[in-house]
Structure formats: structure tokens, C-alpha cells
Amino acid sequence: MINSKPRIITVANQKGGVGKTTTTINLATALAAIGEKVLIVDLDPQGNASTGLGIDRKDRLVSSYDVLTGEAGIDAAAMQTAVPGLSIVPSTLDLLGVEMEIAAAPDRVTRLRDALLQATGRTDTFSYVLIDCPPSLNLLTLNSMAAADSVLVPLQCEFFALEGLSQLLETVQQVRGSINPHLEIQGIVLTMYDGRNNLANQVVQDVRAHMGETVYETVIPRNVRVSEAPSYGKPAILYDLKCSGSQAYLQLASEVIRRERRLRAA
Ligand code: ADP
Ligand code: MG
């Protein structure tokens, strides 16, 4: 799409280990594979998205920290990855201190939004921006929600899957009521599903019963190839396209695109 604003999706859940980073990397790769120009913004100080895309720590010269502190723009921070059409604003451990550093600034919650507007308002560089959030509802996650069109929530298929979801949805409501009235829920994706596990089946049913159509039809299976891929610095989709996890992420991408078209039209 020429000269149109990118769709900005933040991948958020304050729980750690639910599949945020895995979803960000593989959804971004799937979107890039079908010709979208995609940017990931790594907002987690752990930098797992950056590492998982093969970006060496020593090469992260300009990072999301510099963007939030106003030291650099998105254009300067974005690095091309090995995936054609996929760039990333990497993160470094400096991000751990950024909340303190910008806490007193009046624009502390809109730093990322302003940076993205400056970078993308004038060009057609990116059609999608995916933001990988830290496991917290902190200022970093709030920055992502202020900047985003929609929130994509990964939920792990485990007993406490729904725990914490209401708090997350409340935060989305607060953001809608203040800095970003247009923020939508893109959807909820169930991750690390193990079909041999009765509990996992129960969780899928429960989450669908509670959250209805918000939940994507696609369920991401637990798949060892998906968990191996980051140690090779590759998205699962490049590491093993045929594995069940990669195939599920390709399917998720088409659902996400369908929903974005609907949200954009609304
Ligand atoms: P988060 O970003 O929410 O903390 P991650 O995406 O890092 O979660 O996932 C947590 C762990 O689970 C990682 O070790 C990751 O490789 C693994 N993992 C995520 N999704 C899958 C999957 N579908 N199958 C197997 N392992 C997975
Ligand atoms: Mg993560």
C-alpha cells in the first residue's frame, strides 16, 4: 500500500513466557513473506526478539532506548534483518533504566508514537509495525499501546491462561479513555497448545467461551522446532517452514490481515 499509514500492532501480555516474542517474530516473518514491509520494535530490555532475529548485541548501535529518550529516530534505529522485508529496532539492556529517565517528561507515554509518526508519516516504508512488549504493564507497554492501532494478546494454553487478562483489558480501556481512543483488540492467540493434554483442550474451550470471536481460529501448537529456532537467530518460518508451528503462524498472519482490513474499514 503506497503512502498509507502502517498498521501498528502491539503484542502484549504482562505475563512472561506466553509466546509474545515468538509470535512477534513469526507473525512479522509471515507478513514479510507475503510482501508486506514490516518493522519490529523490540521494547523488551531482554532483547529476545533482536537475538531471535540474529541481531548481535555488539551491532545494536542505535536501539529502542535511543528512540524513547529522543536520541535517535526510527529511521536511524531500524536495522535490516536476514528476512527480506523485515527490519527491527533492536533493544538493549539500557531499556531497563528508561522509565526512570523519562518519568518526568510530559510526553513520556507518547514517545514511541511520536517517533513512529515522524518515521512513517512521510513515506510508504513500512506497511506493518509489530511491537514486542516486556512482561509488564509498565511505561514501555503503555508507549506501545499509545502508538498502536490494535493489541494482539498471546495466551498460553495452561491452567492460569485467563488470569491477568482482565487487568490487561482494563489497561487497554484506560488507554482508550485517554491517550489513544482508537486502540482495538486485534485478537487473542492461544499458544503452546499440546493436543495430547486434556487440560489444554479445556483451556481452549474456556477461553473461547469467555472471549468469543476475539480469539483467533488459529491455535499455535507446542512445537520443538519453534523453540529451537531462536538459538539459530532465525524465525521458525525460516528455520523449518514445514513444521506445524510455522504453518500455524502463516495461518495466523492471514487471520490478522483479514481483521486489520476490517478494523481499517470500520
Ligand atoms: P514471551 O515473549 O511472552 O516471554 P516467548 O515467545 O519468549 O514468550 O516464549 C517463551 C518460551 O517458550 C521460549 O523459550 C519459546 O521458545 C518457547 N515457545 C514459544 N512458543 C512456542 C511453541 N509454539 N512451541 C514450543 N515452544 C514455544
Ligand atoms: Mg518476550
From TrEMBL:
Describe its function.
Answer: Involved in chromosome partition. Localize to both poles of the predivisional cell following completion of DNA replication.
The AAA domain sits at 7-185
Q: Which domain of life is it from?
A: Bacteria
- Gene3D superfamilies found in the cross-reference section: P-loop containing nucleotide triphosphate hydrolases
* Protein name (record): Chromosome partitioning protein ParA
The record, for Pfam families, names: AAA_31
Q: Which PANTHER family match?
A: P-LOOP CONTAINING NUCLEOSIDE TRIPHOSPHATE HYDROLASE, PARA FAMILY PROTEIN CT_582
